[in-house]
């Protein structure tokens, strides 16, 4: 049976069901126990499974993320949370030099079924060290799968897929989509979620809106901005197709290509920094394949290459949003 | 512990392993320069890249690993051949890996600093201080699975100044994990002397800060290492938590091969040679009449032959197909 759930409950329900199924799954991180995760992703798990399987850790990110590797190499399936993606600097070595490479360097002798989940995204004046997305950094490193749900249905299915995957999966959730009491909830992210377990495949994009005039590619909150923009544009007889990537690695190139072949136009909307990131990757990938057959130059709307400013007026100015999308789409269709 | 309390068979087996390590390292030390003379080119010859040899540090690996079973995890450093051999890593496959051959542990994807042998739960890393968190994870797994296997994390004296070391000691102590932290103090972090990087003379004292036992032992005496390691391993198996062992060892060669060691005073090198653990052990074994001069020569001869055989296999084995470079980034296909 399906009922509407906010994303944080969908994620914690996925983990709960998987932990009930498989004893080798456990959770570690800061405030994942009694608090249930600062963003609610581990709500209720401590009560159900106890402190052996839901471990509050000291603020020692290298230690507990490296521990995930050690546990995985001994046939456990750890899920670790590192509160904000902004905090990963202190633990990066264990991720990009070890967890991401162990399978390759051991030529498959060592499997790394590790889920690393973290919060990303701004828009609520948390400034430069608590508002970044940074998924591009992780997608750049070979050996990590990267998934980013935009709604609660995908959140549950992607989490179950991530837990069952024998590879390390970086699982990003956007704070503004979690449906928390203390950040204005985004109703469109609260979907009907089946009570039973199901998977959303990693590496498969979702055509969130079918259209014919332009393909807008996005993830997380930007999917909703793109959908809102599309609804407005429709009133002016412009019909965008919106693709929710859901996974950056592996990237569902086929779905994007198919769409752009149909529409002839490509816009990538990206809340991560502009340079050397998701937006440039998609533009390059599509241009390499069908760059000669586009009706207009491909464009991107990304976060500019600046640290995230604090003041509401400043942040609003630089965050990609519905209005900015509408403006660019119109320019591209002129 | 008196030497008489250890069986003759165990002592002779330890002796043979020490000779095997020394012979292996000195043999690789010669082969390394093939193709690298008269002009040294790190990329040339049958063993390309960096090579960190462990001659002089045998007692640490042998005195500890003699207490370990295949299911116990050992996570070594960039200088890890001695631990690999003592842990029972397949020497043919290990050598082929160091030669970059298709018959290697990882079919040439890992190399000398990244040796993985899942059969005996051995791995190592080229990043200083990376082993400690990973041992935490194996310790967690042991506890959660209700097993009595232990994890050994090895680091040099330089690694004891890394954050990972302190994070991991704290976490292992907090969760009473079956982990043995080993600091091999060879007095040098590449060119920086220990007394120029740490204000205390014994890293074992750092254990006090975390409420766990810490012992410093002179690696000149493999029996002394055996003794402290026995206590630490048994304690961990009994579920009484982690220990820290500092082994004072001698670095008989450069940090890496090709290191001119201009930073190292001549008398330090002489001191290191004087503290070589092998002659001291030989003297003891002769005194106890566990072995005579003739038998000793035979042991060395047999091992020399064995190592030559291993080298022959590595030399004559094929390189991997170049296209294999693109395989095995992910489990279950790329």
Primary descriptors:
heterodimer; A: 334 residues; alpha/beta; Rossmann fold; 21% strand; globular; B: 334 residues; 11% strand
What do these coordinates show?
The complex is a heterodimer of chains A (334) and B (334). With 334 residues, chain A is of the alpha/beta class. Chain A folds into two domains: 2-194, Thiamin diphosphate (ThDP)-binding fold, Pyr/PP domains (Rossmann fold, 3-Layer(aba) Sandwich), CATH 3.40.50; 206-333, Rossmann fold. Chain A is built from twelve helices and 14 strands. In chain A, the strands form three sheets. Chain A has a seven-stranded mixed β-sheet with strand order 3-2-4-5-7-6-12, sandwiched between helices. A five-stranded mixed β-sheet of chain A has the order 9-11-10-13-14, sandwiched between helices. A two-stranded antiparallel sheet of chain A has the order 1-8. In chain A, helix 8 (221-234) links the parallel strand 10 (214-218) and strand 11 (240-244). In chain A, helix 9 (253-263) crosses helix 10. The model of chain A has no long low-confidence stretch (mean pLDDT 97). Chain B is α/β, with parallel strands linked by helices. Chain B has one domain (3-326): Thiamin diphosphate (ThDP)-binding fold, Pyr/PP domains (Rossmann fold, 3-Layer(aba) Sandwich). Helices cover 40% and strands 11% of the residues of chain B. In chain B, helix 1 (8-31) packs antiparallel against helix 3. Chain B is globular, with a radius of gyration of 20 Å. The mean pLDDT of chain B is 96.
């Amino acid at each position: 049976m399906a009922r509407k759930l906010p994303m944080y409950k969908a994620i914690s329900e996925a983990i709960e069901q998987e932990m009930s199924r498989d004893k080798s799954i456990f959770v570690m991180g800061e405030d994942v126990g009694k608090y249930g995760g600062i963003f609610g992703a581990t709500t209720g798990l401590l009560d159900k499974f106890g402190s052996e399987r839901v471990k509050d850790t000291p603020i020692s990110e290298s230690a507990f993320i490296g521990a995930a590797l050690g546990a995985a190499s001994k046939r456990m399936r750890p899920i670790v949370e590192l509160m904000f993606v902004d905090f990963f600097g202190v633990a990066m070595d264990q991720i990009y030099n070890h967890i991401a490479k162990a399978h390759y360097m051991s030529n498959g002798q060592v499997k790394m079924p590790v889920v690393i989940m973290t919060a990303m995204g701004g828009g609520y004046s948390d400034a430069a060290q608590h508002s970044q997305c940074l998924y591009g950094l992780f997608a750049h490193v070979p050996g990590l799968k990267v998934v980013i749900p935009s709604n609660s249905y995908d959140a549950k299915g992607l989490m179950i897929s991530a837990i069952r995957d024998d590879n390390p999966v970086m699982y990003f959730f956007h704070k503004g989509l979690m449906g928390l009491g203390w950040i204005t909830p985004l109703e469109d992210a609260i979907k009907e979620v089946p009570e039973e377990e199901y998977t959303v495949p990693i590496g498969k994009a979702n055509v969130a809106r079918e259209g014919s005039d332009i393909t807008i590619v996005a993830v997380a909150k930007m999917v909703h901005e793109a959908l809102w923009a599309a609804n407005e544009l429709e009133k002016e007889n412009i019909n965008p197709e919106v693709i929710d990537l859901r996974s950056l690695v592996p990237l569902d190139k086929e779905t994007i290509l198919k769409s752009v072949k149909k529409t002839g136009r490509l816009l990538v909307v990206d809340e991560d920094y502009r340079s050397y990131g998701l937006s440039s990757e998609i533009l390059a990938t599509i241009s390499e394949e069908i760059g000669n057959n586009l009706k207009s130059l491909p464009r991107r709307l990304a976060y500019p290459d600046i640290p995230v400013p604090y003041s509401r007026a400043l942040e609003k100015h630089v965050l990609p949003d519905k209005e900015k999308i509408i403006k660019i789409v119109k320019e591209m269709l002129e | 512990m008196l030497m008489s309390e250890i069986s003759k068979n165990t002592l002779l087996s330890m002796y043979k392993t020490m000779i095997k390590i020394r012979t292996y390292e000195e043999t690789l030390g010669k082969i390394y320069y093939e193709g690298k003379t008269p002009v040294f080119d790190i990329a040339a010859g049958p063993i390309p890249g960096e090579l960190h040899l462990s001659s002089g540090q045998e007692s640490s690996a042998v005195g500890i690993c003699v207490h370990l079973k295949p299911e116990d995890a050992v996570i070594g450093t960039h200088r890890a051949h001695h631990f690999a051999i003592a842990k029972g890593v397949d020497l043919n496959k290990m050598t082929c890996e160091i030669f970059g051959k298709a018959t290697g542990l990882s079919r040439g994807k890992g190399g000398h600093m990244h040796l993985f042998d899942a059969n005996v739960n051995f791995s190592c890393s080229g990043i200083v201080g990376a082993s400690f968190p990973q041992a935490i994870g194996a310790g967690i797994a042991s506890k959660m699975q209700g097993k009595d296997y232990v994890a050994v994390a090895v680091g040099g004296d330089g690694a004891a100044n890394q954050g990972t070391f302190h994070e991991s000691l704290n976490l292992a102590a907090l969760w009473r994990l079956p982990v043995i932290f080993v600091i091999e103090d060879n007095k040098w972090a590449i060119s920086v002397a220990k007394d120029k990087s740490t204000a205390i003379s014994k890293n074992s004292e750092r254990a006090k800060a975390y409420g766990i036992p810490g012992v410093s032992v002179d690696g000149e005496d493999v029996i002394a290492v055996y003794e402290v390691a026995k206590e630490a391993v048994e304690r961990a198996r009994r579920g009484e938590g982690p220990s820290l062992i500092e082994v004072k060892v001698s670095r008989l060669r450069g940090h890496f091969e090709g290191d001119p060691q201009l930073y190292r005073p001549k008398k330090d090198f002489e001191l290191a040679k004087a503290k070589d653990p092998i002659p001291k052990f030989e003297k003891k074994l002769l005194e106890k009449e566990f072995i005579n001069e003739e038998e000793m020569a035979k042991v060395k001869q047999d091992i020399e032959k064995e190592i030559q055989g291993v080298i022959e296999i590595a030399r004559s084995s094929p390189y991997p197909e170049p296209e294999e470079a693109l395989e095995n980034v992910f489990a279950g296909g790329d």
